[in-house]
Specification:
Strand content: 5-15%
Radius of gyration: 19 Å
Number of helices: 9
Helix content: 40-55%
Oligomer: single chain
CATH architecture: 3-Layer(aba) Sandwich
Bound molecules: flavin mononucleotide
CATH superfamily: NADH Oxidase
Number of strands: 4
Largest sheet: 4 strands, antiparallel
Number of domains: 1
CATH class: Alpha Beta
Structural class: alpha+beta
């Protein structure tokens, strides 16, 4: 993918990845300004470009734009205003049962693109159920990992295109599920909620611990000193 395939931000910029990573802040106040449809589409393309275990793509992404839906979602999120203000909020859900469904479209794409062989697909047909069944109750945790990786792609892509975001964990899962119409899907898990829009505030970086606190070499307890 080239930079030219994506719309530039309102300042005419598309940031490089290190700049987007370092510049991103959790923004809690957004302008009413809408996200242009082609920018929203690009955000979705960049989000689902995320990798997932066995390429399962077992995330379920719901984009909330309707004002009444936003109000309901904000209520589910302890009335956090960013959900009300942002023009679009992404709800990242994870389907721990996706691997039990029809994976044919995934296999077909891999083959059509010349990336997977029929033998690869036969291997996956055996390996995926074997691996997932070995997980037991951790299928939820594993599906959540994939959804969080996709959400991280969204957040950095948004920053790169001149938008701002806020990862949000502060919500009641059953309430969020009701808002997105998933109240009858007991296994569907909510991973994270991410409002996206144009920032109405600038926030400072609260900082990060020195590596010695939480980066180790070879084993836990052997701090990285570099
Ligand atoms: C998984 C996750 C959940 C978060 N949940 C919330 C939230 O519900 N509400 C909020 O205002 N900020 C939330 N934050 C933002 C953090 O407070 C913020 O990332 C942290 O203070 C560091 O600031 P920075 O993102 O600007 O670097 C969350 C961040 C992460 C990664």
């Amino acid at each position: 993918m080239t930079q030219a395939e994506f719309p530039a931000s309102s300042e005419g910029l598309v940031l490089d990845v290190p700049t987007a990573i370092l510049q991103r802040r959790s923004i809690k106040s957004f302008k009413a300004q809408a996200i242009e449809p082609e920018t929203l589409r690009s955000l979705l393309e960049l989000t689902v470009a995320a990798p997932s275990s066995y390429n399962l793509q077992d995330w379920r992404i719901v984009i909330i734009q309707d004002e009444a839906q936003k109000a309901e979602l904000a209520k589910s999120a302890y009335n956090q205003q960013q959900v009300l203000q942002a023009p679009v909020t992404f709800v990242f859900a994870a389907d721990p049962n996706a691997w039990k469904g029809d994976l044919t479209p995934i296999y077909q794409q891999g083959i059509q693109r010349g990336v997977w062989t029929p033998e690869t697909v036969e291997y996956f047909k055996m390996a995926i159920p074997k691996f997932q069944m070995s997980l037991g109750e951790r299928t939820r945790e594993y599906a959540l990992k994939n959804a969080m990786i996709a959400a991280t792609h969204l957040v950095l892509a948004a920053e790169g295109l001149g938008l701002s975001t806020c990862f949000m964990n502060g919500w009641i899962e059953d309430d969020v599920k009701r808002v997105i119409g998933a109240e009858n899907e007991p296994d569907l898990a909510i991973a994270v909620v991410v409002p996206v829009g144009y920032e109405a505030e600038s926030r400072g970086n609260p900082g990060r611990l020195p590596f010695a606190y939480n980066v180790c070499v070879d084993r836990i307890g052997n701090p990285y000193q570099g």
